[in-house]
Amino acid sequence: MRVSSVEIDKAASILKLLGDKTRLTMVKLLNNHDCCVCEFVEIFKMSQPAISQHLRKLKDAGVVRETRRGQWIIYSLNQDNDYYPLVRTVLDHLPSQDNLLEELEEQGLRISCE
Amino acid sequence: MRVSSVEIDKAASILKLLGDKTRLTMVKLLNNHDCCVCEFVEIFKMSQPAISQHLRKLKDAGVVRETRRGQWIIYSLNQDNDYYPLVRTVLDHLPSQDNLLEELEEQGLRISCE
DNA sequence: TACTTATATAAGTAAATTATTATATATTAA
DNA sequence: TTAATATATAATAATTTACTTATATAAGTA
């Protein structure tokens, strides 16, 4: 198989980020749907600062991007970097987590609507 | 793409293990060559217990296997588990680290000879 | 047998990680 | 302008991690 190669230090740092269950699930979700912070707070039953801090790490590494939409900040997967293929292949090995968003939807708590 | 899927908790724990530069390099090397502990000690310029502890974690997770050959214990990649495809795809995104073994060879410090 | 070599384990420690609570900032709405 | 909502940041505490040194075990060799 021929795939783009990522410097080993950078790869290790990306894998470390993905090696946390919360962040890994976040990124898997973002692979299919953009999400805002408050949705993650609901999904993970975790404090808002905790969620913000996970997203900050992912953003600092370039894995995700943010854009403001009114009072919400919408996070999305950044497909525009050298190690996106690595991230993408990892995600391909994970089962869909979309049921988490469907539960939100049933509760009427879904915000971002792309 | 259709690939085998790994439970997200297990995937996170594997990625966490691979998210350390030393372990990631070890596993990348083991993908091509079996190695013993003392070789890793030379390669990483790290204490023998530090190396042993990294290998222990990889072994406990099922990523690597060990077999004794005389006084040496040879480590190899365990291709016989459900998440090997995940590990393998990650490794495919990394540049070869074989130069590290070549340097050993030049110093006459290579042990395992498969 | 005693010594050497290869490896593992145990105990201790410094640094990193992941959460928390408290507070600040920015947008929207009354 | 004031209040409410969404998010970020700061300070802090508990836990985990990745080393270190000291020691134990197991195999090979003189």
Automatic annotation (TrEMBL), chains A, B:
| Keywords, in A-Z order | DNA-binding, Transcription, Transcription regulation
Give one Pfam hit by family name.
Answer: HTH_5
Source organism? Cytobacillus firmus
Any one GO MF term held by the record is: DNA binding
Q: Does the keyword DNA-binding apply?
A: yes
Is Transcription among this UniProt entry's keywords?
Answer: yes
Protein name (database record): ArsR family transcriptional regulator
Domain HTH arsR-type as annotated: residue spans: 3-98
